[in-house]
Design brief:
The protein has a domain of 96 residues: PDZ domain (Pdz3 Domain, Roll), CATH 2.30.42. The protein is built from eight helices and 24 strands.
Length: 495
């Protein structure tokens, strides 16, 4: 899968490095057509119920019910029964919200200013909306717990004057609980350079003041620009770039004057143990809306994603976690959390329907919006890159030691059939050469993962570390062979 911000290869057309040579060009378009975005519906404001009737005489209203039970509770429940309401919901986080029309205030049952039939119409409208929400799915329906009791008289609404905190389900493992804990450690980053500026997201990595984010978030300020880090309480601090890894799209910045006692690192999860269907929470500043929290699931794992831009900078590759949590420009660099509040990825790119149907990293001038296809760098990879940057300031990449042929249209990734302008297709004495790979070989699997293109090959190589051994399946003259390659090392980004 390629992305909108494409990078032109500075070398000969069609010749591309595999696993960390020079800057790479746009990846082949292997994505399917994206479905049209459905239009949003808006509820009608037409009252539900019969025509307006004159109010009855004072005293004709029925007395308020003995209690206002949550939606689904029985009117005869005891106080102990109601105290334990509601039961766990089907939502991944068990989230529940109070309802009187989703926060709309309810009217008094004894107020003579509101005729009985008109209030009944409002009640019917609220009930209808709640039923529609329930039909959408158990997760959304779980948010619509009503405060109106089943024992109330028909056509009347009673809303409790106090909110039952337990009914809101703001436990530490709920969305609200996780967001409350993570927001103070999630920051908005503004990068200002002489030619461009942008806004993205990051999160506290350690107590020394290091912030983890995307490379493309801080790139505008990389050459003597200004970085500002803003916390959820509104406080702002100047920061400096510690290190950038263009190929991984990971960067580390550090607060110039870290505040004492304020920095709480977000806990890191294990992205290798993530399963498709796991719940996700994304936090960021989409379109500048700081502190935005959205939810979804892990839609896929090991999704090869290549991204770049038109400046000629090195493209980035990732074996991404795909999520349907709503993420947009400005979410870039922010945390993707699991249901335990642990970071499992760094939000980095989205698939969009604009700009020819490609993906784009956040923070670019292209203002594509979410269509439910977001991609995050797995945190296990990002952590290793971040630690390397903090230690040395320079990224380290695993390499195969070959030039790949992006003009190849068959299955797999082909090594260039011949040398290109003095650059060997297979580096002499390099990892591939030592393993017996030759110019023109087509790699179809790497460490058991099917390879369908050059970008997929690089994404898979860069998910490993230098020195690791990987099994490579390749074809030569129509015959299939297998060899073991010990991956080499390249320090620094290509210029």
């Amino acid at each position: 899968m390629s992305t909108e911000h494409e990078s032109g290869f500075t070398g000969p057309q069609g010749a591309q490095p595999a696993g960390g040579h020079d800057a790479v060009g746009p990846a082949p378009d292997r994505t399917a057509q994206q479905p049209a975005v459905p239009s949003d519906g808006a509820p009608s404001d037409t009252p539900v119920g019969g025509p307006y009737q004159a109010p009855p005489q004072p005293g004709a209203y029925p007395p308020p019910p003995a209690h206002s039970a949550p939606f689904g509770a029985e009117a005869g429940d005891t106080a102990a029964d109601r105290a334990s309401w509601p039961p766990p919901s089907g939502h991944p986080f068990g989230a529940g919200q109070p309802v009187g029309g989703w926060g709309a205030p309810g009217g008094s049952t004894t107020d003579p200013q509101y005729p009985r039939r008109k209030r009944g119409g409002l009640t019917a409208l609220v009930a209808a909306v709640a039923i529609v929400a329930g039909a959408i799915g158990g997760g959304i329906g779980a948010w619509a717990n009503s405060d109106s009791g089943s024992g109330s008289s028909a056509g009347s609404t009673t809303v409790s004057s106090t909110v039952d905190r337990a009914a809101l389900n703001r436990a530490p493992t709920s969305v609200a609980g996780i967001a409350a804990k993570a927001l103070p450690s999630t920051v908005t980053i503004k990068a200002e350079g002489s030619q461009e500026s942008g806004t993205g997201t990051g999160f506290v990595y350690d107590t020394q003041g290091h912030i983890l984010t995307n490379n493309h978030v801080v790139a505008p300020a990389a050459d003597g620009g200004k970085l500002t880090v803003k916390f959820s309480d509104g406080s702002s601090y100047s920061a400096s770039v510690v290190g950038r890894a263009e190929g991984y799209d990971v960067a580390v910045v550090k607060l110039d004057n870290p505040p004492k006692g304020k920095l709480t690192p977000l806990p890191l999860g294990d992205s290798d143990k993530v399963a498709v269907g796991d719940a996700t929470i994304a936090i960021g500043a989409p379109f500048g809306l700081e502190g935005t929290v959205t939810t979804g699931i892990v839609s896929a794992k090991d999704r090869p994603v290549a991204s770049g831009d038109s400046t000629g900078a090195q493209a980035s590759y990732m074996n991404a976690l795909q999520t349907d949590a709503s993420i947009n420009p400005g979410n870039s660099g922010g945390p993707l959390l699991n249901a335990g509040g642990q970071v499992i990825g760094i939000n980095s790119a989205i698939q969009s329907t604009s700009g020819g149907g490609g993906s784009s990293p956040f923070g670019q001038t292209e203002q594509a919006g979410s269509i439910g296809l977001g991609f995050a760098i797995p945190i296990n990879q990002a952590k290793w890159v971040a630690d390397t940057l903090i230690k040395s300031g320079r990224p380290v990449y695993a390499i195969l030691g070959v030039l790949r042929n992006d003009n190849y249209t068959g299955d797999g990734a082909q090594i260039m059939p011949s040398d290109v302008q003095g650059t060997p297709a297979v580096t002499a004495g390099g990892p591939a050469d030592k393993a017996g790979l030759k110019p023109g070989d087509v790699i179809t699997k790497l460490d058991g993962v099917p390879i369908d293109s050059g970008p997929t090959l690089v994404s898979e190589i860069w998910s490993h570390r230098p020195g690791e051994q990987v099994q490579v399946v390749y074809t030569r003259s129509g015959e299939t062979h297998t060899t073991t390659v010990t991956l080499g090392e390249r320090v620094g980004d290509s210029q």
